[in-house]
Amino acid sequence: MGKKNFTDKTYGENEAVVSNIYDKIQRAYLTNSIVFTNEFCSPKISSVAKNLCSKIGVNFCAYGVFQDAERCMLSFSLCEVENSKYPIDFLKISVKSKFCSLDHKDFLGSIMSLGIKREKYGDLILENDSCYVPVSIDISDYVKSNLLKIKRESCSIKSIDILEDYVPNFKFQDILVIVTSDRLDSFVASICKISRNKSADFIKSGNVQLNYSEIYEKDFKVSENDILTIRRYGKYKIYSFLGYTQKDRIKILIKKFA
């Protein structure tokens, strides 16, 4: 797979980041060394990078600290890579205020206001008035020195030992749905409890993403482990196909991101 083909498959992503990842995969192959990305990559980039690595015989690993992490730092090598080797600092951002309720967008917006590229930090998990976020080691000190407030509330930041300290996980709501087929419109109809016709219109209008890419074809096939994002309804992981009903409909376990 040439660089142009690689970048074409990751259309919509940061072109400079994608090009750099391609070069790093090639360097790992040619130098027989471990090469890390300096960024946390989206599932789309990770998928294409994994495919290229498998074709040329390079070991692909992705690590985002959290179980079920979506944004991950990647490594390319000819051997296994320990999680502790990744150039990641895991931060706990704490805010104690009885007068202000903060959510995900408040922490994300405050970090982005520092002028840091989104690729430089991974997923965010909020728990007990704190936000846990892995960041690239090269921006860690900058974040600690400059992130002073979340919204209008003062915050404190400390590094967490990934191997020794508590690491939270995503919370999911388990949902059992029945679909008539593995088509996208069938999944959207069942999850949103709307008709197949309304589901098709919803997809055609650009309201549905599969693995973070907008899909406009109602008959697009959905598979296990796909991430389905439906505007105004939420984000879901297609967790497991459980079998069939007596009417030959498919039983699916879906996990909705809380």
Please give a quick description of this structure.
The chain is an alpha+beta fold and about 260 residues long. The chain contains seven helices and 15 strands.
Please give a structural write-up.
The protein has 258 residues and is of the alpha+beta class. It folds into three domains: 3-82, Ribosomal Protein S8, Chain: A, domain 1 (2-Layer Sandwich), CATH 3.30.1370; 88-160, RRM (RNA recognition motif) domain (Alpha-Beta Plaits, 2-Layer Sandwich); 172-257, Structural Genomics Hypothetical 15.5 Kd Protein In mrcA-pckA Intergenic Region, Chain A. It is 28% helix and 31% strand. The chain is built from seven helices and 15 strands. The chain has helices at 3-9, 15-31, 43-56, 104-112, 140-146, 184-192, 196-204; strands at 35-41, 59-63, 72-77, 88-94, 125-127, 130-136, 149-150, 153-154, 156-160, 172-179, 208-210, 213-214, 227-230, 234-244, 250-257. The strands form four sheets. It has a six-stranded antiparallel β-sheet with strand order 10-15-14-13-11-12. Strand 14 (234-244) and strand 15 form a beta hairpin. Helix 2 packs parallel to helix 3 (43-56). The radius of gyration is 20 Å and the shape is globular. The two termini are 38 Å apart. 30% of the residues are buried. The model has no long low-confidence stretch (mean pLDDT 90).
What tags apply to this protein structure?
single chain, 258 residues, alpha+beta, Ribosomal Protein S8, Chain: A, domain 1, Alpha-Beta Plaits, Structural Genomics Hypothetical 15.5 Kd Protein In mrcA-pckA Intergenic Region, Chain A, 4-stranded antiparallel beta sheet, 7 helices, 31% strand, globular
